[in-house]
Design a protein that fits this description.
By secondary structure, the chain is of the alpha/beta class. The protein has 5 helices and 6 strands, in the order ββββααβααβα. Helix 3 crosses helix 4. It is found in: Cytoplasm.
Length: 166
């Protein structure tokens, strides 16, 4: 069953969406979106409001925004294509407080050169803002490029982490 909750934070009220496991093994986070996000989740018919399903997620978000957490340890729902999942795993390996370019991610997933555009598209479809740190990816020229939550939020997250934009 799909469950959802809201969490307040410095980026606005975030919508958390998860899938409860049939065997009672908890809730896998499927989406974390912010107000006005391009392609963000919208509460669907039949979804159950279940803040209790997200206590671990909200605790980790609180610690991240307070500067006490540098890497999330959460159960994620398995979504996306094989290529998207490879790109998203590469995002999870970007250390806190650092940035990499789209080209560097493309090379890490075996798609250099023309694959940079495909990597950018996969990053743009990341359903887990903040916890899967797509905000740490910047342009080859060091400029902030695309962020589904808006460039202002991307800059804010990088500032929170003390990341120097090249």
């Amino acid at each position: 069953m799909t469950v959802y909750a809201y969490a307040d934070g410095p980026l606005g009220e975030m919508l958390l969406v998860g899938e409860e496991s049939a065997d009672g093994g908890g809730t896998a986070l499927a989406s974390l979106s912010v107000p006005g996000q391009k392609g963000g989740a919208v509460v669907g018919d039949g979804w159950r409001h279940a803040p209790e399903a997200f206590t671990g997620v909200t605790a980790q978000l609180r610690d991240y925004f307070a500067g006490r957490l540098t890497r999330f340890d959460l159960q994620y729902a398995d979504t996306g294509t094989d290529f998207q999942r490879r790109v998203w795993r590469a995002l999870e390996d970007i250390p806190y407080g650092t940035t990499v370019t789209y080209g560097e991610i493309a090379a890490r997933v075996g798609a250099p050169g023309a694959g940079v555009r495909a990597v950018g598209t996969a990053i743009g479809r990341n359903p887990l803002l903040v916890v899967r740190p797509c905000h740490r990816v910047i342009g080859a020229d060091g400029a902030l490029r695309g962020y589904a939550g808006g460039l202002e939020r991307k800059e804010r997250l990088l500032g929170l982490e003390g990341a120097l934009v090249r």
